[in-house]
Design a protein that fits this description.
CATH class: Alpha Beta
Order of helices and strands: HEEHEHHEHE
Helix content: 25-40%
Number of helices: 5
CATH topology: Rossmann fold
CATH superfamily: NAD(P)-binding Rossmann-like Domain
Structural class: alpha/beta
Shape: globular
Number of domains: 1
Distance between the termini: 19 Å
Number of strands: 5
Strand content: 15-25%
Strand order of the largest sheet: 3-4-5
CATH architecture: 3-Layer(aba) Sandwich
Amino acid sequence: MGLTFKARTDDLRDSPSLAVIERLVAEGATVTAFDPTVGRDLPGVTVAADPYSACDGADVLAVLTEWDDFRWLDLEKVKVLLARPAIVDARNLLDRAGAMRLGFSYAGIGR
């Protein structure tokens, strides 16, 4: 979740998300992403039409940009869509305790 370098912008220049994605792809990962302002596929990335489509069949949900849209994701729906309930929250945006109560494995960067 999130491709732009910060929320409320469409600027991809120097985005940490792209560096993370580049490393994942180099390791053989298939990456599907969602960002409210990015509507086109990028090298190595399929951009989904909505956040739930991006979760469908994924091994992990990674939150890389702090869009408020992501804060209010229906985590019960996300859990059903993911191949396994795992979250890496690089922005500490999601409700950690709530996600863990739902059975997610949750890693917040800096926690």
